């Protein structure tokens, strides 16, 4: 009462009236921004919209206009007109060009040798785009990568057309083909042909090849519930709260249909591959595995698409199994374009095994049959044998996933990991006892031995697929590249003694060759021709031992490089010794940054090859960005604007990060 007495309130009214009057006077004195301030407003808004996938129509949205007007005109007493869409587009074009100049300058200043990735993507509006990324190590051993282009590529995608586009992109960015260590592409014939026509060394994406080994064995296309029954469920039940699916992106019906088309296409390609590779017995064994996987895929599709099924599954977890609501899990559907998604789907099904058991028990009740009349006869609970099979399959697939993730990194060298990773995968596939730990708890069950037999044949089949796809790769890959990673160089367990010595000789040859490029040439000295240089690099890339051309002038270089390699191997052997108390090497780039002056010749080779990536994941990520730009509601965007928006979204933050790092 004392605080809000009428007398006190009455005395405050004149003050209130004075404040209102002053505010009214202030509103009447709104400042107009200058031309320079308006340009900065337009520039900042254009950067924010392009970097964060906002629609250009935002500047015409009444709610957004009201918000900006309130915080500027009402609160700030300054009039800030929002740019029109045409003005905003001009600002985006200007910013994209400024950013291109910055990236071009960075590449010119800090890029010596580089690798590139390329891939093709079709947008929802049926326009096709080619992505082009560059990867290199600068003079301070900082890894750099840029998405240089996501450019429309109309017409039939022949190898010649793709090569022409790549050639134009490299010319536009002033990239010397002689400095390109590798083009990383997919394994399609047109991309292989493009690499040959372009005239640069090229190889297929390791993660893509690993995915092909696994995907065909686990994808099923004919007479599946996925294609026949899922459409029926989705016709009347689809509205599910998507946020509960942490691994799955939000997919529209059109996008789900596109995923289904991709799955069918991938399955057909893999069926052809399997027919060309496997015996009839192996095909039969894989067909039985695919049938089991399909059972779990059908369950995943239903619970993913049915709001009623999803709600019941969530209720079972929270009420029957006492799982907190925030920890309740949803199903995951595998996708042919998402590597390792099949393993994620199967692992999620295993995690939800208890919940699924309760669900099928509920289906057996009268109440459950009344609630789920549409699926009672269609959904099948996997048997104990099916569950054990999937657990064994997860054990077999997990190393593939780990290797794919390892080889897809951007901030550490991946090329040195190729051979050790492939050798590790092959070793896993040759391990006859890999399923023992999983099967042991079920050893007394009647189906345990049968499951073991089937999974052993599955393992042997995957081994056959693996060796068919990677045997030549494991022979052709330069074994010496792994020596450039100080974490591996001290041991190299994947090489035999004779292979280790051969790899060391080849590394000395590569080091001497590169060191020779940095030495002055005096009269009477011998230089190799450009053709000889190309032949030398070609021999190194394909791992065949080549005798180093030497004369009385180059022999000291070779000897010096050999001594340098010996010192390097001695040092990294100590660093990688687990019994040593020193901190282990975590990032090879940091190690070389601190030791490049100690190993001047080897560091040149390291800078050249550690910037070479093993996968085309960078191009895949660029297309993920493109998918956020060209959405179902933004299909009318012009290709040139898409190009600018993706370039900004991909590179603006990297430019800021690199500038801060410097």
TrEMBL record:
GO terms for molecular function: protein dimerization activity; zinc ion binding. Keywords: Coiled coil, Metal-binding, Nucleus, Zinc, Zinc-finger. It comes from the Eukaryota. It is found in: Nucleus. Transmembrane segments: none annotated. Residues 249-276 form a coiled coil. One of its GO terms (cellular component) is nucleus. Residues 564-651 form the HAT C-terminal dimerisation domain. Pfam families: Dimer_Tnp_hAT. This is AC transposase. It comes from Phytophthora citrophthora.
């Amino acid at each position: 009462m004392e605080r809000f007495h009428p007398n006190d309130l009455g005395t405050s009214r004149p003050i209130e009236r004075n404040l209102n009057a002053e505010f009214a006077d202030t509103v009447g004195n709104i400042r107009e921004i200058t031309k320079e301030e308006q340009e900065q407003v337009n520039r900042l808004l254009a950067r924010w919209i392009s970097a964060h996938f906002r629609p250009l129509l935002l500047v015409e949205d009444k709610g957004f206009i009201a918000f900006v007007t309130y915080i500027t005109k009402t609160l700030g007493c300054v009039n800030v007109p929002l740019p029109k869409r045409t003005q905003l587009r001009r600002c985006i074009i200007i910013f994209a060009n400024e950013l291109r100049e910055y990236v071009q300058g960075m590449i010119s200043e800090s890029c010596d040798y580089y690798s590139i990735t390329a891939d093709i993507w079709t947008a929802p509006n049926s326009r096709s785009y080619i992505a082009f990324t560059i990867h290199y190590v600068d003079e301070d051993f900082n890894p750099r990568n840029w998405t240089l282009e996501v450019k429309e590529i109309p017409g039939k995608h022949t190898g010649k057309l793709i090569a022409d586009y790549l050639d134009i992109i490299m010319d536009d960015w002033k990239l010397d083909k002689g400095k390109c260590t590798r083009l990383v592409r997919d394994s399609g014939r047109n991309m292989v042909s493009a690499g040959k026509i372009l005239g640069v060394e090229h190889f297929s994406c390791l993660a893509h090849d690993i995915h092909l080994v696994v995907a065909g064995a686990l994808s099923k296309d004919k007479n599946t519930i996925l294609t026949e029954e899922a459409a029926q469920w989705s016709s009347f039940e689809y509205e599910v709260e998507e946020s509960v699916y942490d691994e799955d992106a939000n997919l529209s019906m059109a996008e789900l249909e596109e995923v289904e088309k991709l799955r069918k296409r991938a399955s057909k390609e893999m069926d052809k591959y399997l027919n060309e590779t496997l015996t009839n017995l192996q095909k039969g064994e894989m067909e039985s595995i695919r049938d089991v996987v399909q059972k779990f895929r059908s369950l995943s599709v239903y619970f993913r698409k049915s709001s009623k099924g999803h709600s019941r599954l969530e209720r079972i977890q929270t009420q029957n199994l006492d799982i907190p609501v925030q920890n309740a899990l949803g199903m995951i559907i595998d996708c042919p374009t998402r590597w390792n998604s099949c393993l994620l789907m199967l692992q999620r099904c295993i995690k939800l095994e208890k919940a699924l058991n309760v669900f099928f028990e509920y289906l057996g009740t009268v109440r459950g049959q009344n609630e789920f009349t549409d699926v009672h006869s269609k959904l099948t609970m996997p048997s104990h044998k099916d569950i054990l099979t999937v657990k064994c399959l997860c054990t077999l697939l997990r190393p593939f996933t780990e290797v794919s993730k390892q080889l897809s990194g951007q901030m550490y060298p991946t090329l040195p990991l190729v051979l050790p990773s492939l050798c590790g995968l092959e070793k896993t596939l040759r391990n006859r006892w890999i399923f023992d730990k999983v099967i042991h708890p079920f050893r007394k069950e009647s189906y345990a031995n049968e499951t073991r037999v089937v999974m052993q044949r599955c393992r042997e089949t995957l081994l056959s697929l693996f060796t068919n796809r990677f045997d030549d790769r494991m022979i052709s890959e330069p074994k010496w590249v792994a020596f450039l990673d100080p974490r591996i160089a001290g041991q190299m367990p994947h090489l035999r003694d004779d292979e280790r010595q051969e790899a060391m000789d080849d590394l000395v040859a590569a080091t001497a060759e590169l060191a020779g490029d940095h030495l002055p040439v005096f009269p009477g000295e011998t230089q190799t021709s450009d053709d000889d240089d190309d032949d030398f690099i070609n021999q190194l890339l394909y791992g065949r031992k080549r005798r180093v051309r030497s004369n009385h002038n180059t022999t000291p270089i070779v000897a010096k490089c050999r001594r340098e390699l010996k010192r390097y191997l001695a040092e990294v052997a100590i660093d990688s010794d687990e019994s040593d108390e020193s901190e282990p090497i975590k990032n090879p780039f940091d190690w070389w940054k601190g030791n490049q002056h100690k190993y001047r010749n080897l560091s040149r080779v390291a800078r050249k090859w550690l910037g070479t990536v093993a996968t085309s994941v960078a191009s895949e990520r660029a297309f993920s960005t493109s998918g956020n730009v060209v959405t179902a509601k933004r299909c009318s965007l012009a290709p040139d604007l898409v190009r600018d928006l993706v370039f900004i979204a991909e590179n603006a933050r990297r430019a800021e990060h690199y500038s801060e790092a410097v």
